[in-house]
Amino acid sequence: GSCLSLGSCLSLGSCLSVGSCLSVGSCLSVGSCLSVGSCLSLGSCLSVGSCLSVGSCLSLGSCLSVGSCLSVGSCLSVGSCLTLGSCLSVGSCLSVGSCLSVGSCLSVGSCLSLGSCLSVGSCLSVGSCLSVGSCLSLGSCLSVGSCLSLGSCLSLGSCLSLGSCLSLGSCLSVGSCLSVGSCLSVGSCLSVGSCLSVGSCLSVGSCLSVGSCLSVGSCLSVGSCLSVGSCLSVGSCLSLGSCLSVGSCLSVGSCLSVGSCLSVGSCLSVGSCLSVGICLSVGSCLSVGSCLSVGSCLSVGSCLSVGSCLSVGSCLSVGSCLSVGSCLSVGSCLSVGSCLSVGSCLSVGSCLSVGSCLSVGSCLSVGSCLSVGSCLSVGSCLSVGSCLSVGSCLSVGSCLSVGSCLSVGSCLSVGSCLSVGSCLSVGSCLSVGSCLSVGSCLSVGSCLSVG
Q1: d(CA 307, CA 293)
Q2: Separation CA 11–CA 442 (nearest Å)
Q3: Average pLDDT for residues 211-238, to the nearest whole number?
Q4: Which UniProt keywords apply (predicted)?
Q5: Which residues pair with 381 in a beta bridge?
Q6: Are strands 184-186 and 28-30 parallel, antiparallel or unpaired?
Q7: Cβ atoms of 389 and 373 closer than 8 Å
């Protein structure tokens, strides 16, 4: 009815029921079920055939083996190993010295602490904190209320959900989705099958690979390479050591810095500044709030919009339209499919080719040849090293200087002086404010007016 106390061992064929407390000096073996009202204390090992139920606390010196399910009201402490066939439920805290293996599901009310390894067949739910010395292996889902700390590796079949922080010594692998409330820190590599969502900051030592989408609240820092299948969204800053590859779209709130190359499938949007070490390739559109700096080449499929300054080391290629707020500097060649608009000055090392119209606020300087499909408008001065070809009309605010030949389809208007090295050909009318100087031949279709 109340308590049972034995000096050495107790062995029963079927079931044992004790009203209050059960104390056994050495080992306890029960064939089917064991039920204890309050506390159970054993010196060495406990073996139960089917189910074990304890009202308050269970304390074991060495190992515990239960065939099917184990339920403990408050705390469970096992010295060495704990093995369960199906499910384990603990009201408050669970502490195991070495390894814990559960066949199906494990539920702990507050904290779970393990010396070495934890293996759970299906799902694991912990109320507050989970601490594992070495490795954690789960079949399906893991839910932790506050913090999770692991010595080495974590492997999950499906999803991981954490309330606050996750800290890992080495690698983390998740089958489907990973969600962390605040910060996630991984020593070496992080691999997620589908989606990864982090509330504030994400820090990965070496490489980060995500199957579909990656969302980070504030900052994302990756040591070497980052690969995302579809979309990547970062709240504030993104810093990468080497390369970044995104399948579809990349959105960064403030600044994006990439050590070597950046490749984006469709669109790239950056709030303030974008800095890329070597090459930048964007499938469709690229939008940058303030400044964009690229070490060598920049290729954009459709449109490129930059708030202030754009600097490219070698070549710049844009499919349709290019808009720059202040100054644009390109080392060698610049090719734009349709229209090019620059707020103040445009400087190109060798050749500049624009499909339709080119508009520059102040000065335009081109090293060798300049070709514009339709109209060219320059605010102050235009200087071209060799030849200048304009499809329809050319308008220059002050002076125009061309090294060799100048060809304009319809009308040419220059505010002050026009100087051409060799030949000048204008389709309809030519108007010059002050002086006109041509090296060899001058051909005008209709009217010529010189100040």
Answers
A1: 12
A2: 118
A3: 75
A4: Signal
A5: none
A6: unpaired
A7: no
What is the helix (H) or strand (E) element at residue 47, kind and residue range?
A: strand 46-48
Task: Report how far residue 60's alpha carbon sits from residue 94's, in angstroms, rounded to the nearest whole number.
Answer: 12
pLDDT at 116: 66
Rounded-to-integer distance, Cα 22 and Cα 43, Å: 12
Dump pLDDT digits (tens) for 198-224.
776 777 777 777 777 777 777 777 777
Supply the DSSP string of 277-334, one letter for each residue.
SS-EEESS-EEESS-EEESS-EEESS-EEESS-EEESS-EEESS-EEESS-EEESS-E
Looking at residue 95, its amino acid is S
- For residue 193, the tally of other CB atoms under 10 A from its CB is 20
Q: Name which of 210, 193, 280 is nearest 247 in CA terms.
A: 210
Dump pLDDT digits (tens) for 381-397.
Answer: 888 888 888 888 888 88
Assigned token pair, 372: 């514009």
Using CA atoms, how far apart are residues 185 and 162, in angstroms rounded to an integer?
13
Residue 280 pLDDT? 82
Tokens of 245: 């590859």
> For the chain, what are the domain ranges?
1-129, 153-263, 402-451
Structure tokens at 47: 């073996």
